[in-house]
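Model: Ready when you are.
Researcher: Fold this.
Model:
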Amino acid sequence: MDTQTQADPQTAELLKQSFEHLGRQDFVQCERTLARILDANPEQPDALELLGTLHRMQGAQAEAESLYRRALAVRPDHPQTHNFLGGLYREMERLDEAIAELQEAVRLKGNFADAWFELGLAQMAKGDLPAAEKSLRRALHIVPNFLFARQALGVLLNDMGQPREAETLLRQTLALGPRDPRHVAALEHNTGVALKLQGRYEEALRFFDAAQNRMPDVPMAEYNRGHTLQLMGRREEAEASFRRALAVNPQDEKAQNALDELLATRH
């Protein structure tokens, strides 16, 4: 998080403590420390921004939006606040507003990799895949080993019908050695998707199995495993995968439609 603050020494120390509390997810102490700042200066922009992020992490989106807006009223040219507000709007599925805020963030700070990444995600959600690709590649030009941008670009390339390039990117990212098991599992799953799209089904299954062994609840992994098995003609195993996907998420329309189709053609 970028403070870029001109705060007095006491405020700066309280902001530092607030960051530390937030990093430990000690939300109570974080809010109490920020309250000390805002009691003395109700429009201190760094404290408003950080309090907005605290509320965002707690799921209080309306409060977060209000606080980010107050921070921008004091400091309208602060790229980080525009980035945070754009990310919040993306989470709220207010995509046009998200894109506008994130474009403002990168206009103010052209080498802002986090904002280019967020912009790419918003453009993906909007369905503007070419624009999303440009934004994600810009983020990676700035920070070549940006894990989340690499992962998102891999997903995007699969969606754009470029699975061979996606496979290369995702394998390179796995070779970087990410440590978080959830991140590794997501990369393995998306590599499996790239292999499935290339018709390399046995290899795809190995990656899906690796992802599920690492993290049993990887989104879409059970569906993609089932679809791969279906393409291989292994119908009973495919049916079992689709049923497991629905057991985890009964609202999984892709798994339900695939299972219905499979059952309808059983005889």
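Researcher: Now this one.
Model:
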Amino acid sequence: SERMQYIDTHTHIDGEEFKEDLDQVISRAKETGAKYLFVPGINWDSIATMREVCGRYPGYIFPMLGLHPEDVKDDYEAVLDRMYTILKESMAQERPEWIAIGEVGLDYYWSREYEKEQLKAFERQVEWSIETRLPLMIHCRKAQNEMVKLLRQYEKELPGGVFHCFTGNTHEAEELMQFPRFVLGIGGVSTFKKSHLAEDLASVVPIERLVVETDSPYMAPAPHRGERNEPSFIPFIIQKLADAYQVTPEYLASVTTSTAEKMFLGCGIK
């Protein structure tokens, strides 16, 4: 059978956690079949770290631009203004620097202190996605109702995107599947002992509407749970999903890779 190829659609490979051994982490990723790595933006400072790692591995690591909901603070409007300037400059280039708007969304897990600001920041970045036709990488924690309500207002115009780190039930999966052109990003949680996620997905989500991700350094899959996560752990997630969908890991990898390529590299990066 052909060698498995996958795309880690969500890795914070620009983070401090990988400073010491980035080259080794990347070689392990390549050895296990990683074709590309996609890096979500989280705040203003991450622009520099993403540019640095993408510059070190051109054509292999690709960045997204966005303000993470947990980074929405009192100065969020000024930060978004500066990001938008960078986005506009990029869109004027022959090959835009950013492959998506993300990681954006809503996170009411710890507190609702910035609830209104998060909603405004999310909405503004959804508008960037519509304007640029770049897909969205959406982070949503304890806020699915609010997120769905906002996205419904833009449903017809949205180019698509990923509901990253999906860990919900079949009802929540079905609700998100109602957004055409959107897919679910599935990570390490699917491999945890008590998780029914993979089986739930197989019952309601077509295989063409999944992409795989690590969210590294967080959320490592079993058998590495609790360790620093890295892109080379994706095969554990693929194996778990392949079992649930009753297909080979190679097949699941090729379908999710093709879905991710169409959505993020549609501008013809080959």
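Researcher: Key takeaway?
Model: The longest strand covers residues 101-107.
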